[in-house]
Amino acid sequence: MQLLDDHVVLILGGGSGLGLGVARHCLGEGAHVAIMEVSADKLVDLKAEFGEEVLLVHGDVTSIEDLEATRTAVLDRWGRLDALIGAQGIFDGNIPLKDVPLDRIESLFDEVFHIDVLGYILAARVFVGDLEQSHGAIVLTSSTAAYAADGGGLFYTAAKGAVRSIVNQLAFEFAPRVRVNGVAPSGIANSQLRGPAALGLEGNKQSDIPKEAFLEQFLSLTLMPTLPTPEEYGPLFAYLASRHNTTMTGQTIVADQGLFNRAVISNGTVDRVGQ
Ligand SMILES: NC(=O)c1ccc[n+]([C@@H]2O[C@H](COP(=O)([O-])OP(=O)(O)OC[C@H]3O[C@@H](n4cnc5c(N)ncnc54)[C@H](O)[C@@H]3O)[C@@H](O)[C@H]2O)c1
Protein backbone atom coordinates (compact mmCIF):
# COMPACT_ATOMS: atom_id res chain seq x y z
CA MET A 1 0.00 0.00 0.00
CA GLN A 2 1.44 3.35 -1.07
CA LEU A 3 0.47 6.88 -0.07
CA LEU A 4 -1.06 7.81 -3.44
CA ASP A 5 -2.47 4.47 -4.60
CA ASP A 6 -5.64 5.18 -6.63
CA HIS A 7 -4.98 8.93 -6.70
CA VAL A 8 -5.04 10.95 -9.91
CA VAL A 9 -2.74 13.95 -9.46
CA LEU A 10 -2.37 16.89 -11.84
CA ILE A 11 0.74 19.05 -11.51
CA LEU A 12 0.81 22.50 -13.13
CA GLY A 13 4.28 23.61 -14.21
CA GLY A 14 5.86 20.20 -13.77
CA GLY A 15 8.42 20.64 -16.53
CA SER A 16 11.38 21.28 -14.24
CA GLY A 17 12.38 22.10 -10.69
CA LEU A 18 9.87 21.64 -7.91
CA GLY A 19 6.95 20.36 -9.99
CA LEU A 20 9.08 17.75 -11.72
CA GLY A 21 10.50 16.53 -8.41
CA VAL A 22 7.01 16.35 -6.94
CA ALA A 23 5.79 14.46 -10.03
CA ARG A 24 8.57 11.89 -9.64
CA HIS A 25 7.77 11.47 -5.98
CA CYS A 26 4.02 11.10 -6.59
CA LEU A 27 4.69 8.44 -9.22
CA GLY A 28 6.85 6.59 -6.73
CA GLU A 29 3.95 6.73 -4.28
CA GLY A 30 1.64 5.01 -6.73
CA ALA A 31 -0.22 7.99 -8.22
CA HIS A 32 -1.49 8.42 -11.74
CA VAL A 33 0.23 11.65 -12.73
CA ALA A 34 -0.59 14.34 -15.29
CA ILE A 35 1.63 17.35 -15.94
CA MET A 36 0.60 20.59 -17.62
CA GLU A 37 3.59 22.57 -18.83
CA VAL A 38 4.04 25.65 -21.04
CA SER A 39 7.52 24.82 -22.34
CA ALA A 40 7.48 22.57 -25.40
CA ASP A 41 11.20 21.81 -24.93
CA LYS A 42 10.65 20.59 -21.39
CA LEU A 43 7.79 18.39 -22.59
CA VAL A 44 10.20 16.63 -24.95
CA ASP A 45 12.43 15.79 -21.98
CA LEU A 46 9.42 14.68 -19.91
CA LYS A 47 8.32 12.38 -22.72
CA ALA A 48 11.80 10.86 -22.84
CA GLU A 49 11.75 10.28 -19.07
CA PHE A 50 8.18 9.11 -18.54
CA GLY A 51 6.95 7.81 -21.92
CA GLU A 52 3.24 7.10 -21.74
CA GLU A 53 3.22 6.66 -17.96
CA VAL A 54 2.61 10.36 -17.30
CA LEU A 55 -0.11 12.29 -19.12
CA LEU A 56 1.67 15.30 -20.63
CA VAL A 57 -0.33 18.34 -21.66
CA HIS A 58 1.13 21.37 -23.40
CA GLY A 59 -0.61 24.40 -21.94
CA ASP A 60 -0.45 27.75 -20.25
CA VAL A 61 -1.98 28.11 -16.79
CA THR A 62 -3.18 31.61 -17.65
CA SER A 63 -5.39 30.26 -20.45
CA ILE A 64 -8.88 29.03 -19.54
CA GLU A 65 -8.97 27.14 -22.83
CA ASP A 66 -5.73 25.30 -22.01
CA LEU A 67 -6.92 24.48 -18.50
CA GLU A 68 -10.18 23.10 -19.86
CA ALA A 69 -8.31 21.04 -22.46
CA THR A 70 -6.14 19.68 -19.63
CA ARG A 71 -9.26 18.81 -17.68
CA THR A 72 -10.70 16.96 -20.66
CA ALA A 73 -7.45 15.03 -21.14
CA VAL A 74 -7.33 14.01 -17.46
CA LEU A 75 -10.97 12.94 -17.34
CA ASP A 76 -10.68 11.08 -20.66
CA ARG A 77 -7.80 9.04 -19.29
CA TRP A 78 -8.83 8.42 -15.69
CA GLY A 79 -12.38 9.71 -15.26
CA ARG A 80 -11.58 11.76 -12.18
CA LEU A 81 -9.09 14.04 -10.42
CA ASP A 82 -8.01 13.64 -6.79
CA ALA A 83 -5.41 16.36 -6.42
CA LEU A 84 -4.39 19.57 -8.14
CA ILE A 85 -0.86 20.70 -7.39
CA GLY A 86 0.14 24.21 -8.50
CA ALA A 87 3.90 24.40 -9.00
CA GLN A 88 4.21 26.87 -11.86
CA GLY A 89 5.88 30.19 -11.40
CA ILE A 90 8.26 32.84 -12.65
CA PHE A 91 10.53 35.23 -10.75
CA ASP A 92 10.50 39.04 -10.89
CA GLY A 93 14.24 39.55 -11.32
CA ASN A 94 14.68 40.79 -7.74
CA ILE A 95 14.93 44.42 -8.81
CA PRO A 96 14.20 47.04 -6.11
CA LEU A 97 11.04 48.97 -6.94
CA LYS A 98 12.95 52.25 -7.31
CA ASP A 99 15.02 50.67 -10.08
CA VAL A 100 12.07 49.32 -12.05
CA PRO A 101 11.31 51.78 -14.85
CA LEU A 102 7.93 53.33 -14.18
CA ASP A 103 6.62 52.40 -17.59
CA ARG A 104 7.43 48.71 -16.99
CA ILE A 105 5.63 48.32 -13.69
CA GLU A 106 2.24 47.46 -15.13
CA SER A 107 3.57 44.86 -17.58
CA LEU A 108 5.82 43.36 -14.88
CA PHE A 109 2.88 43.17 -12.49
CA ASP A 110 0.65 41.60 -15.15
CA GLU A 111 3.23 39.02 -16.17
CA VAL A 112 4.16 37.88 -12.64
CA PHE A 113 0.63 38.00 -11.26
CA HIS A 114 -0.91 36.25 -14.26
CA ILE A 115 1.34 33.22 -13.94
CA ASP A 116 2.01 33.20 -10.17
CA VAL A 117 -1.48 34.14 -8.98
CA LEU A 118 -4.17 34.12 -11.66
CA GLY A 119 -2.96 30.71 -12.89
CA TYR A 120 -3.70 29.21 -9.46
CA ILE A 121 -7.09 30.91 -9.27
CA LEU A 122 -8.21 29.82 -12.74
CA ALA A 123 -7.07 26.25 -12.16
CA ALA A 124 -8.91 26.06 -8.84
CA ARG A 125 -12.07 27.29 -10.54
CA VAL A 126 -11.78 24.90 -13.49
CA PHE A 127 -11.12 21.79 -11.35
CA VAL A 128 -13.14 22.45 -8.20
CA GLY A 129 -16.17 20.44 -9.37
CA ASP A 130 -14.05 17.36 -10.07
CA LEU A 131 -12.25 17.72 -6.76
CA GLU A 132 -15.57 18.01 -4.92
CA GLN A 133 -16.66 14.74 -6.48
CA SER A 134 -13.50 12.95 -5.39
CA HIS A 135 -13.26 14.71 -1.99
CA GLY A 136 -9.89 15.78 -3.24
CA ALA A 137 -7.18 18.30 -2.48
CA ILE A 138 -5.46 21.38 -3.82
CA VAL A 139 -1.83 22.12 -2.95
CA LEU A 140 -0.37 25.45 -4.02
CA THR A 141 3.20 26.70 -3.96
CA SER A 142 3.94 29.84 -1.99
CA SER A 143 7.43 30.76 -0.78
CA THR A 144 9.27 32.03 2.25
CA ALA A 145 9.16 35.27 0.25
CA ALA A 146 5.54 35.52 1.39
CA TYR A 147 6.63 35.79 5.03
CA ALA A 148 9.72 37.98 5.11
CA ALA A 149 11.45 40.56 2.97
CA ASP A 150 14.22 39.86 0.48
CA GLY A 151 13.04 36.54 -0.92
CA GLY A 152 12.62 38.28 -4.25
CA GLY A 153 11.53 41.67 -5.45
CA LEU A 154 8.24 43.32 -4.59
CA PHE A 155 6.26 41.66 -7.37
CA TYR A 156 7.31 38.08 -6.60
CA THR A 157 6.94 38.67 -2.86
CA ALA A 158 3.44 40.10 -3.27
CA ALA A 159 2.43 37.27 -5.60
CA LYS A 160 3.61 34.62 -3.15
CA GLY A 161 1.76 36.42 -0.35
CA ALA A 162 -1.33 36.29 -2.52
CA VAL A 163 -0.95 32.51 -2.91
CA ARG A 164 -0.87 32.17 0.86
CA SER A 165 -4.13 34.16 1.12
CA ILE A 166 -5.70 32.15 -1.72
CA VAL A 167 -5.04 29.01 0.31
CA ASN A 168 -6.87 30.53 3.29
CA GLN A 169 -9.85 31.71 1.29
CA LEU A 170 -10.30 28.63 -0.91
CA ALA A 171 -10.00 26.30 2.08
CA PHE A 172 -12.94 28.20 3.56
CA GLU A 173 -14.97 28.29 0.33
CA PHE A 174 -14.31 24.70 -0.75
CA ALA A 175 -14.77 23.06 2.68
CA PRO A 176 -15.62 20.42 3.60
CA ARG A 177 -15.22 18.46 0.40
CA VAL A 178 -11.93 19.89 -0.89
CA ARG A 179 -8.91 20.48 1.32
CA VAL A 180 -6.69 23.36 0.24
CA ASN A 181 -3.17 23.76 1.58
CA GLY A 182 0.11 25.28 0.52
CA VAL A 183 3.83 24.73 0.82
CA ALA A 184 6.26 27.63 1.19
CA PRO A 185 9.76 26.44 0.27
CA SER A 186 12.88 28.51 0.87
CA GLY A 187 15.44 27.40 -1.69
CA ILE A 188 15.20 24.71 -4.34
CA ALA A 189 18.21 23.09 -5.99
CA ASN A 190 18.09 22.73 -9.79
CA SER A 191 15.35 25.33 -10.12
CA GLN A 192 15.00 26.86 -13.56
CA LEU A 193 12.79 29.69 -12.30
CA ARG A 194 12.99 32.30 -15.04
CA GLY A 195 12.94 36.06 -14.91
CA PRO A 196 10.26 38.33 -16.37
CA ALA A 197 10.05 39.22 -20.05
CA ALA A 198 8.73 42.63 -18.95
CA LEU A 199 12.29 43.47 -17.86
CA GLY A 200 13.98 41.53 -20.66
CA LEU A 201 15.05 38.87 -18.13
CA GLU A 202 13.14 35.89 -19.51
CA GLY A 203 16.44 34.24 -20.46
CA ASN A 204 17.77 34.39 -16.88
CA LYS A 205 17.26 31.26 -14.80
CA GLN A 206 17.94 30.54 -11.14
CA SER A 207 20.10 27.63 -12.29
CA ASP A 208 22.42 30.18 -14.02
CA ILE A 209 23.55 31.51 -10.61
CA PRO A 210 26.91 29.88 -9.82
CA LYS A 211 26.05 26.97 -7.53
CA GLU A 212 28.75 27.58 -4.93
CA ALA A 213 27.83 31.25 -4.40
CA PHE A 214 24.13 30.48 -4.15
CA LEU A 215 24.73 27.58 -1.80
CA GLU A 216 27.09 29.57 0.40
CA GLN A 217 24.58 32.39 0.79
CA PHE A 218 21.71 29.98 1.46
CA LEU A 219 23.63 27.95 4.03
CA SER A 220 24.78 31.10 5.83
CA LEU A 221 21.14 31.85 6.62
CA THR A 222 19.55 28.46 7.28
CA LEU A 223 19.98 25.94 10.05
CA MET A 224 19.93 22.79 7.96
CA PRO A 225 23.03 22.04 5.93
CA THR A 226 21.66 21.42 2.45
CA LEU A 227 19.78 23.14 -0.32
CA PRO A 228 16.84 20.74 -0.81
CA THR A 229 16.29 19.08 -4.15
CA PRO A 230 12.81 19.27 -5.68
CA GLU A 231 12.34 15.59 -4.79
CA GLU A 232 12.90 16.38 -1.10
CA TYR A 233 9.77 18.53 -1.14
CA GLY A 234 7.85 15.61 -2.68
CA PRO A 235 6.67 13.98 0.57
CA LEU A 236 5.12 17.23 1.83
CA PHE A 237 3.19 17.82 -1.39
CA ALA A 238 2.23 14.15 -1.69
CA TYR A 239 0.86 14.01 1.85
CA LEU A 240 -1.19 17.19 1.42
CA ALA A 241 -2.47 15.88 -1.94
CA SER A 242 -3.49 12.55 -0.45
CA ARG A 243 -6.67 11.35 1.20
CA HIS A 244 -4.51 10.56 4.26
CA ASN A 245 -4.52 14.25 5.14
CA THR A 246 -7.66 14.35 7.24
CA THR A 247 -6.46 17.04 9.65
CA MET A 248 -5.33 20.11 7.72
CA THR A 249 -6.93 22.66 5.44
CA GLY A 250 -6.14 26.34 4.94
CA GLN A 251 -2.54 25.92 6.07
CA THR A 252 0.68 26.75 4.31
CA ILE A 253 3.61 24.69 5.55
CA VAL A 254 6.78 26.75 5.77
CA ALA A 255 9.51 24.40 4.62
CA ASP A 256 12.36 26.80 5.24
CA GLN A 257 15.34 24.73 6.40
CA GLY A 258 15.23 26.71 9.66
CA LEU A 259 15.63 30.03 7.85
CA PHE A 260 13.21 31.91 10.08
CA ASN A 261 14.45 30.41 13.34
CA ARG A 262 17.29 32.90 13.57
CA ALA A 263 17.50 36.06 15.66
CA VAL A 264 20.85 36.80 13.98
CA ILE A 265 23.07 37.70 16.90
CA SER A 266 25.94 35.70 15.49
CA ASN A 267 25.89 37.33 12.09
CA GLY A 268 28.41 35.12 10.38
CA THR A 269 28.15 31.93 8.42
CA VAL A 270 27.73 28.94 10.69
CA ASP A 271 29.72 26.04 9.34
CA ARG A 272 27.27 23.19 9.12
CA VAL A 273 28.35 21.72 5.83
CA GLY A 274 29.19 18.06 6.28
CA GLN A 275 27.73 17.88 9.79
N1 LIG B 1 13.41 28.29 -6.82
C1 LIG B 1 13.23 28.58 -5.55
O1 LIG B 1 14.18 28.76 -4.83
C2 LIG B 1 11.82 28.68 -5.04
C3 LIG B 1 11.63 28.97 -3.68
C4 LIG B 1 10.32 29.04 -3.19
C5 LIG B 1 9.25 28.83 -4.02
N2 LIG B 1 9.47 28.57 -5.35
C6 LIG B 1 8.29 28.35 -6.19
O2 LIG B 1 8.31 27.00 -6.60
C7 LIG B 1 7.55 26.88 -7.82
C8 LIG B 1 8.38 26.08 -8.81
O3 LIG B 1 9.48 26.87 -9.19
P1 LIG B 1 10.91 26.24 -9.54
O4 LIG B 1 11.88 26.96 -8.69
O5 LIG B 1 10.86 24.78 -9.49
O6 LIG B 1 11.10 26.82 -11.02
P2 LIG B 1 11.03 26.09 -12.45
O7 LIG B 1 11.10 27.19 -13.46
O8 LIG B 1 12.09 25.04 -12.52
O9 LIG B 1 9.59 25.43 -12.48
C9 LIG B 1 8.43 26.18 -12.82
C10 LIG B 1 7.76 25.53 -14.02
O10 LIG B 1 6.57 26.28 -14.33
C11 LIG B 1 6.48 26.36 -15.74
N3 LIG B 1 5.64 27.49 -16.13
C12 LIG B 1 5.95 28.81 -16.11
N4 LIG B 1 4.94 29.54 -16.58
C13 LIG B 1 3.95 28.66 -16.90
C14 LIG B 1 2.66 28.81 -17.46
N5 LIG B 1 2.18 30.03 -17.79
N6 LIG B 1 1.89 27.70 -17.66
C15 LIG B 1 2.38 26.47 -17.34
N7 LIG B 1 3.61 26.27 -16.83
C16 LIG B 1 4.39 27.35 -16.61
C17 LIG B 1 7.93 26.55 -16.17
O11 LIG B 1 8.12 26.31 -17.56
C18 LIG B 1 8.63 25.55 -15.28
O12 LIG B 1 8.67 24.28 -15.86
C19 LIG B 1 7.22 28.30 -8.25
O13 LIG B 1 5.91 28.62 -7.86
C20 LIG B 1 8.23 29.12 -7.48
O14 LIG B 1 7.78 30.44 -7.29
C21 LIG B 1 10.71 28.49 -5.87
Question: Your description of this structure?
Answer:
The protein is α/β, with parallel strands linked by helices and 275 residues long. The chain has one domain (8-255): 3-Layer(aba) Sandwich (Rossmann fold), CATH 3.40.50. Helix content is 39%, strand content 13%. It is built from seven helices and seven strands; from the N terminus they run βαβαβαβαβαβααβ. The protein has helices at residues 17-28, 40-50, 64-78, 105-134, 154-174, 211-221, 234-241; strands spanning 8-12, 32-37, 55-58, 83-86, 137-141, 179-185, 252-255. The protein has a seven-stranded parallel sheet, with helices on both faces. Helix 4 links the parallel strand 4 and strand 5. Helix 1 packs across helix 7 (234-241), helix 3 runs parallel beside helix 4 and helix 4 runs parallel beside helix 5. It is globular and about 50 Å long. Bound molecules: nicotinamide-adenine-dinucleotide.
Which key features would you list for this structure?
single chain; about 280 residues; alpha/beta; Rossmann fold; seven-stranded parallel β-sheet; 7 helices; globular; binds nicotinamide-adenine-dinucleotide
Quick gist of this model?
By secondary structure, this protein is an alpha/beta fold. It is 39% helix and 13% strand.
